[in-house]
Design brief:
Rossmann fold; alpha/beta; about 325 residues; 6-stranded parallel sheet; 13 helices
Amino acid sequence: MRILFVHTRYLQSAGGEDSTLEAESGLLRMKGHEVDILLFDNADTVKGFTGKLNAGISAIYNRRSARILGRAIERFKPDIIHVHNFFFTGSPSIFFEAKRYKVPIVATIQNYRLICANALLLRNHKVCELCVKQSFPWHGVKYKCYHDSAIQSAVVGSTAAIHKWIGTWKNKVDMFLAPAYFIRSKLIASSFNVSADRIIVKHNFIADPGFSDGASRQSFYLFVGRLSEEKGVETLLKAWLLTTNKQLLIVGEGPEKDKLASTYGHLPEINFAGKKNHAEVLQLMKQCRALIFPSIWYEGLPLTIIEALATGTPVISSDLGAMQEMISHQHNGLLF
């Protein structure tokens, strides 16, 4: 089978969606399928005010992206197209173009962008579902949920809403893939308005990282992830102040790093280790007592938790979203 993956990179460094794409395309190649990858990049369109304005408009329908996909279809002649992320540069135009060429298309939904302006169902450090059942996220605009801007929130919300109104999600995509049953249930019960039989669950996966038994464990606890609000790192650090003589290693970079490091970095129990490569992260997972996952939003199916469990590392996680599917309390970890 000839499979064309289509994906749009975010502005920040590679994350879970990029890793999922790499894993899926690699496995399919290993199984003998012909695979090609068409990448778009949001960094190409958001330089300066004009770039951001154009990016917002083209996010609704990007003619250039449609033409690029058309040329890729003519060159590669895929049997199926699998879209991972189409916000913002790819845009829903790619679904129209795939239909024009009569190529079946599936799309993976890794977050809540189609029913929430900021994609996280999160506001003021708390879960927020005000817009879930609304065809347009009016509350998202009111509360400036995307980049603290009413205008940008309206543009992002319009991208999802317009294509609900004109039936793009119902008529241009053959199947949607959700990485967790939690995400599927949220989409089914929302204004997304796609029938349940066209939203199926396909879990994320990883290569086997190797198992570590208790004999090789050290006394520290580990956090791995982006240092941003939704990851709940500050919640973790505030709680850590209540512990006694327990070491916490923070691995990762992000917009909150400087603030967190200046507030908590002087404490002897807390070590900010910065960014580590994948091999180093896996080695730390095999050495720590437990991975702590304090996310405050409805995560999809975090690869970090999958990797920790695969190495035999227990996970202490917030009791939210897909984490409830992954962690059996007091069996392979703890939920709080």
